[in-house]
């Protein structure tokens, strides 16, 4: 009887985040929703998703909204009305939902929502709420690029240093991220779990009829350094004039990137596809994934490309070797010239590209499959 009571106990989880627009975190939330709705062993987990905004600020519609709506996750939005011209405080709304739902755990992403979650742990100390913080990047590298000012960057770093060590668990996607959290932000190693990102969709195309030679999918933000993507494509075009590239995604730099493409007369060589609900058709129709980010945690977008048999050519950022096995599943390059050289090599040798893509697909299936998603969900209990 005691065992049955434990198995039948309902675990209520709150998830805190910004929106369901484009991005790796939004995809994670959608995958969590899928897992909870399709796996019987998670039938005793009840999840409420609290979003700060009803719609992503830069998209016409949220990419992952329908997918989450069709799951067992219930979605709630921070009230949009203002009190004396001030937005209804998210922290007040979260307090109310905790009183209503009495969660056993809170899963949060990004500093803002993680600080709120950890704060709730102490406000409602008698509830013994387990707080799981998910951080998908390398904070010490990301913050200096994303900060609006030096003061903003300082505040963000202090928030992580002062709050993240108080979480019950900090989940990161790579060993580099774990080292950064421990060394630069004082999070105890025993509180940090490496759970590598996962891919649920796979595809394979063997043939010569491709629409794009080079592709990038994801957010169009400063950290992605898509100016370098454009420069690399231009170098490839100098040797291979017929090259066709595509950027699938959206973000704060979309106008600047569009203008840069025009200024370099690459309108016929680089297509801006915008945000897409289904990127599978783009990956299926492309040969190579190019990543020119200044740094990453363990990005989902190139893993998805590998799952479709695309080798990845990536800039040599800290932790790149955790994504690409150099010379086996893709190439790691330290300069735009080297990246362009790797792309030209693969474009000229279809057999090599296909073999490398096949190894990339096998690697993702082995190390970044659905078991990683299930491990992540199990942390919520």
In short:
This protein is of the alpha/beta class and 381 residues long.
Tell me the radius of gyration.
Answer: 21 Å
In DSSP terms (H or I, runs of 4 or more residues), the helix count works out at 15
Please tally the β strands and state the result. 15
| Count of folded domains | 2
CATH level-two architecture of the largest domain: 3-Layer(aba) Sandwich
| Helical/strand content category | alpha/beta
Summarize the amount of helix as a percent range. 40-55%
Q: Could you describe the largest sheet, including whether it forms a barrel?
A: 7 strands, parallel
Question: Given this structure, which CATH class of the largest domain is correct?
Answer: Alpha Beta
Distance between the termini: 20 Å
Order of helices and strands: HEHEHEEEHEHEHHEHEEHEHEHEHEEHHH
Please report which band the strand proportion falls in: under 5%, 5-15%, 15-25%, 25-35%, 35-45% or over 45%: 15-25%
- Spatial ordering of strands, largest sheet: 3-2-1-6-7-8-9
Give the mean pLDDT: 92
Shape: globular
Briefly note the CATH topology name of the largest domain.
Rossmann fold
Low-confidence sequence ranges: 1-6
CATH evolutionary superfamily of the largest domain = Glycogen Phosphorylase B
